[in-house]
UniProtKB/TrEMBL annotation:
Gene: ribE
GO biological process: riboflavin biosynthetic process
Every Lumazine-binding domain range: 1-96, 97-193
Function according to Swiss-Prot or TrEMBL: Catalyzes the dismutation of two molecules of 6,7-dimethyl-8-ribityllumazine, resulting in the formation of riboflavin and 5-amino-6-(D-ribitylamino)uracil.
Gene3D superfamilies: 2.40.30.20
Protein name, per record: Riboflavin synthase
UniProt pathway annotation: Cofactor biosynthesis; riboflavin biosynthesis; riboflavin from 2-hydroxy-3-oxobutyl phosphate and 5-amino-6-(D-ribitylamino)uracil: step 2/2
Annotated EC: 2.5.1.9
Keyword annotations: Repeat, Riboflavin biosynthesis, Transferase
InterPro entries for the chain: ATP_synth_asu-like_sf (IPR023366), Lumazine-bd (IPR001783), Lumazine-bd_dom (IPR026017), Riboflavin_synthase-like_b-brl (IPR017938)
Molecular function per GO: riboflavin synthase activity
Superkingdom, taxonomy of origin: Bacteria
Organism: Desulfotignum phosphitoxidans DSM 13687
Length: 219
């Protein structure tokens, strides 16, 4: 489990093909002395298992499913990545609960400067957009962010200078692809409500509303 608060920028040093999978060798600024082989590390939001460790470098195995669902299809040496180790339940939990299981990818369609913030618009498939709400949480390349606005095809986020400086989001340009993980609690609520209304005739189906949430015990 992760928080979406990035600990370090890393750089892919080497990509080793393994059939449809890959092994990534990554260097970063973190002191990994207390990290063990088998520990989970989120790389651009994808939960991966450390299989080799050095003080400031690690290697991870990437299964074909992970490659297919993420931007790592085009991973190459020199690519910058966001790195976060699994959270500890001994300190404050900033950000939001992030599983590291990528739901899909999006593409940046617009970048706009507004005062001290950078506004990004990201286009996504409708099934991902359907799991988002305004002011809800989303992880973009593993970064915990708040959704400003969302439609059936895209959403917008606001990036403060601190986030732009410490993560890969500050390097992004229009046309770049990013990994997306929608809010896990929202997904469970949506699935539950979809199942409970599955037997309702199509003509009686309604969108999720405050009254529907209350009827099902969420309020």
């Amino acid at each position: 489990m992760f928080t979406g608060i990035i600990e370090s920028l890393g750089t892919i040093h080497r990509v080793i093909p393994q059939g449809e999978g890959k092994v990534l060798q990554i260097r970063c600024g973190l002191d990994l002395s207390d990290t063990r082989i088998g520990d989970s590390i989120a790389v651009n939001g994808a939960c991966l298992t450390a299989v080799h460790l050095e003080k400031h470098a690690f290697s991870v195995d990437m299964a074909p499913e992970t490659v297919a669902r993420t931007t790592f299809k085009t991973a190459a040496p020199g690519m910058r990545v966001n790195v976060e180790r699994a959270m500890q339940l001994l300190s404050r939990v900033d950000g939001h609960l992030v599983s590291g299981h990528i739901d899909g990818t999006g593409v940046i369609t617009r970048i706009e400067n507004k005062s001290n913030a950078i506004l990004l618009t990201i286009a996504v498939d409708t099934h991902l957009a359907g799991q988002m709400i305004e002011k809800g949480s989303v992880a973009v390349d593993g970064i915990s962010l708040t959704i400003n606005q969302c439609t059936d095809t895209d959403f917008s986020i606001s990036i403060i200078p601190h986030t732009a400086k410490l993560t890969t989001i500050g390097f992004k340009q229009t046309g770049d692809f990013v990994n997306i993980e929608t809010d896990m609690i929202g997904k469970y609520v949506r699935k539950f409500l979809t199942r409970t209304t599955a037997s309702v005739p199509e003509t009686e189906h309604t969108d999720i509303s405050m009254s529907l949430l209350a009827q099902n015990g969420f309020l």
